Input
Amino acid sequence: MTNRTGWKPGMAKGSDAPAPGADVGAGGATRGIAYEERLLFEHASAGARTGVSLPPAGSDFDPAKELPSAMLRGEIAGLPALGELEVVRHFTRLSAWNHGIDTGFYPLGSCTMKYNPKSSEALARLPGFADAHPLLPAELCQGSLELMYQLERALSEISGFAATTLAPAAGAHGELTGVMMIRAWHVARGDARKKVLVPDTAHGTNPATCALNGYEVVQLASGPDGRLHPETVRAAMGEDVAAIMITNPNTLGIFESHIAEIAEIVHARGGLVYGDGANLNALLGVARPGDMGFDVMQFNLHKTFATPHGGGGPGSGPVAVAQKLVPFLPLPVVVKESERYRLVDDGKERPQTIGKLREFHGNFGMFVRALALIREYGPEGLKATGQLAVLNANYIRAGLKDVYHLPYDTDSLHEVVFTDKALKATGVTTMDVAKRLVDHGFHPPTVYFPLVVHGALMIEPTETESKETLDQFIEGMRAIADQARVDPEGLKSSPQKPVRARLDEVRAARKPVLRWRPGMKVE
Amino acid sequence: MNLPDDLKYTKDHEWCRIKGNRAAVGITDHAQDQLGDIVYVELPEVGDAVKKGESFGVVESTKAVSELFSPVSGKVVEVNDPLSDAPETINEDPYEEGWMIQVEFADAKEPDALMDAAAYRKYLEEESE
Amino acid sequence: MRYHPHTSEEIQEMLAAAGARSLDDLFRSIPEPLRLRRLLDVPPALDEIALFAEMRRLAARNQTEHPPFVGAGAYPHHVPPVVDQLLLRGEFFTAYTPYQPEVSQGTLQALFEWQTYVCLLTGLDVANASMYDGATAMAEAALMAARLTDRKKMVVSAAVHPEYLRVLRTYLASTHDEIVTVPYGRDGRTDLGALSRAVDDRTAAVIVGYPNFFGVVDAVEEASALARKVGALSVAVTNEAVALGLFKGPGELGADVAVGSFQSFGNTLNFGGPAPGFFATRDANVRQMPGRLCGATVDKHGRRGFVLTLSTREQHIRRERATSNICTNAGLCALAATIHLALLGRKGLAELARLNYARGRLLREAMSRAGFRPCFSGPSFNETAFDVGDAEAVVTRLARRGLAAGAPLARWYPDDAGMKGALLCVATEVHTPELIEMFAQAVRGRA
Output
């Protein structure tokens, strides 16, 4: 245990200056040099400065001489004019304000913020991949097509399904795709149905997706053990229900152990079972949704397969399907014909396809990264991922359960949900705990989700975090619980260390300022 | 919790103040407290029809959205327009300045089915258990 | 395994702390019949050196030595190395969605700058934090128009990107909305007579390309006027965003919504994805916009900062009544575009656009000397459809030389006899005059 405060026996008491290192959070957060940095548009920008190096346009073919002036614009007022160094400094300074996985721990439940391998970044940037145009003739892009084929085979095997589409751009897009296929399947049988069953623990994208497909959402109550029970499903299941959407393990981190029976109930009355694969990390190499009765499932490559979150995207949401849904897969599909690969983009070859859901073929840049990870792991590595993810979550559960309230006594898999109930008397809330964790050097966990738990704190460590980091996190959480009892006001003033303290989100919503304008002032 | 005695209340936490065949409608102190700082409210237009138990608008905080359900059926005769620029009025003064719409209702018996202050207080107590 | 930091001692300690006898024991909540009792059938693990060898083998099976002469929605441009090197800062690319604004000010300010750039280039009031791509952005624009007007008919120019139109059809499949396509004329622009006949008081949106799929600058001003007359929304779709450095922003021409892709800024081709879709509209429509929005505010000390805002439109709050189900978008791609635009600056953007126009003209000139005329007479930017006789044969022949010649339009317009020999080609700042000349001669079969 390092001597964080530097205190030694025999040191004089009552010293005014804070002991060196006294302001270091459990996760190591302290102070550094960060810069204020105005908006690009607020920099001095008269003149003809530029940060690029372009060949001269030449005097030939001047659009001002060849096109009607009413079509053209001059230089756009308001755009800055900066040199390369100014631009580099601007974004470098901005980056210093961010927490990233590379900086510190993200215990975000259901987000699977695992380490993003740097080898994947290098591989995605190989010119053969980065410079390939999506409409290259097949003979000029066999590499990309083979890669997509390999990824499709691997994802199908990992999840236990017949085939996988790589087209959807993100998890929610994958959900949209999956529910569209479900709808198409019912329509093809002449039995368009109206409803989809969704548990109360579902992620918001689930009901939103249903609505986009014209389905009415029927919410099902989870039981006191945090699980969905067969009787609940049986009571709600009817001939007008197209599907049930289930996340397994669910957003409480609990395995829906009744899944086989639930699937049977739904199938028996002609419905299909959609799996939200956001929590697949818990099952890697250990169990497969396709073996549990699911008919369709979306992946989140930016979760389970470590493609970077990038501050909000891009993701990739491939969708795996059981044999019965294969004909409805969106286009394009990569097929292998002896040793050649071909992109099938024509509805004539796939007459029941739901069509295209995005331009071109998929977020190929993320395919490279995901396949690189799968190839590096191999079968043992994938299994170890699932095991260690669950071990880490249970280690945290054990380390905090005497201090924070566990709403469900049920086994946790890869994530654990606590609440702020034990702190109620102090007036400290989940939000305060979250903000105080920042001062310790951790990104807050997922808060106030799932909605079935009041004041939820959802913690998913992932398998790439070391025991040392988890110990620091546990220490931080315990310190916060202690602080809640003796200094709740101090807690509520968090965070104090980042460049900005708590931001006024109410003001942002009441008086939205969504872009820069000349003379912009926000106070 | 502030619960004026002269008002009627709904299970969805709206209140109404009856004057003849007109009802002023808003949300209760409990509702504004649950929502947090209100940032936006969407109200109907004068002349719109409303039905008892059906949605007539939406109120939003930064983290939640709540539909507004009419306690009576009739026609909207007045709308509290200043709320769109100052939605925080609903938090500050939910029963007076925070009124949302005035409805002219036809069935004089309709408000009888609503809860009085005592019944609503009891309802709140039961809900919190 | 380098990403699994646990030692076997630590695993034992942690199991003991968690009260589990073994790793397997942790999964006791999964019923036995559902457990996988074999290893996954995926190829054996590779060390990093072997991994690189394998991935290089795949990359080498792609022919990318010469810049492609095809655009059709994805454009070969030069991305300055600064972009990538800034993108690779771990604080940017390994950061999460900025839901906790105090630790995400870098991402948030950059998003605010992205939103501003999109507004400045499109001439509209407000833009979101990016969409999956241009096609889904266009579909979302149609859905927004339906919500705002309470109407069900979308009038779409047949010269809009055909893949975008296919995506629109998929998105509207369950809504019972009607899609009416309007033909293009010999100038490659939307037939305005046909358009005015199609637009009526049942129309929710009028959608035209800008430039359109043929690289022609289409009649956004006229289309917007028609839309305004019936109370419909006018939507302009831009695939090649560099064009906005030369041509007026669609908002200035009366468009209510501008959508498309900013892939041309800061993003390499990546075989078609990921890329930043964009969505911009007028202030009045902001609460019906899909996607995330970044707004300015102050912290409790009064310092300006940025947060995601108006979140009640989105799925995590409004759930089934959300404006869209979009969650993750294309944030890092938008950042790449923002960095590139910052580098270009006011003058550089205008220069780049002018340079692209010049290269497009040079291509037309070279192809003309080689005996190939443009299919359409309307004003173009850097992309032109040429009548080359047998377009598929040209593509195959040039492919043998490692050249991606262009996109044969008959693939998407099989019923238009005038498109039989049409090859859609692009020339940008990465196509040197020498390369352009060589290309034109190669198409002719003489080089």
